[in-house]
Write a structure and sequence with these properties.
The protein is an alpha/beta fold. The chain has helices spanning about 1-10, 10-15, 35-45, 60-70, 85-100, 115-125, 145-160; strands spanning about 25-30, 50-55, 75-80, 105-110, 130. The protein has a five-stranded parallel beta sheet with strand order 3-2-1-4-5, sandwiched between helices. Strand 2, helix 4 (about 60-70) and strand 3 form a beta-alpha-beta unit.
C-alpha cells in the first residue's frame, strides 16, 4: 500500500514546475538525456534563454551534440562535465553561473528529479532565481517506477547528508 501511495503521490511530491519565463541560461542536467535535451531545445527555440549550460559528466558531450542537431548554436552552449551527481551539478554549475553573473536560470531535468535538483541549485546559489521546467511527465506506474522509488531515497539522503530540504522550497 505504501508503494502504491508513493507512486500515486509522486507527481505532487517530486515534481515542481515553476514555469519557464525568461532567463539568462537554460541548465540541462545529464542523465536521461533524450527527454531533457528535447525540452531544452524547445525552450531555447521559444526564447526562454539565449544560452545553455549542460551539466553532468558522462553524457554532456552527447547532450551538446543533440542540442546542436536540434538547432541550438554551438557557441551558446557551455559544458560542465565534472559533476557526478545532482549535488555536484548544482555546486559546479553554480560556480559557472556566478562567474557569468547569471541572475535567472531554468533547470531542465526529469519530472521526478525536478524538486531535488531545484532545491540543490537554490542551496548553492541562493542569489540566483531558479525556475524548473521538467522534461515530459510519464506515468509513475510505467517503467519510471524504479526511478520514482530511487528518487524518494535520494531525496531523504540529500536531506540528511547535505541539508537540502525537499519540500520547503528552500535549503537549510
Amino acid at each position: 500500500m505504501i508503494g502504491i501511495a508513493a507512486l500515486v503521490s509522486a507527481r505532487a511530491l517530486l515534481c515542481v514546475q515553476t514555469g519557464a519565463g525568461h532567463a539568462d541560461v537554460i541548465v540541462v542536467l545529464g542523465g536521461e538525456s533524450v527527454d531533457r535535451t528535447r525540452k531544452a531545445i524547445d525552450l531555447f527555440h521559444h526564447g526562454a534563454a539565449s544560452r545553455v549550460l549542460v551539466s553532468g559528466g558522462g553524457d554532456a558531450s552527447f547532450i551538446r551534440d543533440e542540442l546542436v542537431r536540434g538547432g541550438v548554436p554551438a557557441d551558446v552552449i557551455e559544458i560542465e562535465d565534472l559533476s557526478r551527481n545532482t549535488k555536484e551539478n548544482a555546486e559546479f554549475s553554480s560556480r559557472v553561473l556566478k562567474k557569468e553573473k547569471v541572475q535567472r536560470a531554468i533547470i531542465v531535468t526529469s519530472w521526478f528529479h525536478s524538486r531535488r535538483a531545484l532545491n540543490s541549485f537554490r542551496r548553492f546559489s541562493p542569489q540566483i532565481r531558479f525556475s524548473s521546467f521538467p522534461a515530459n511527465h510519464h506515468e509513475p506506474f510505467s517503467a519510471e517506477a524504479g526511478h520514482v522509488f530511487q528518487e524518494y531515497a535520494k531525496t531523504l539522503w540529500y536531506t540528511f547528508r547535505y541539508r537540502i530540504l525537499p519540500w520547503s522550497g528552500a535549503a537549510a
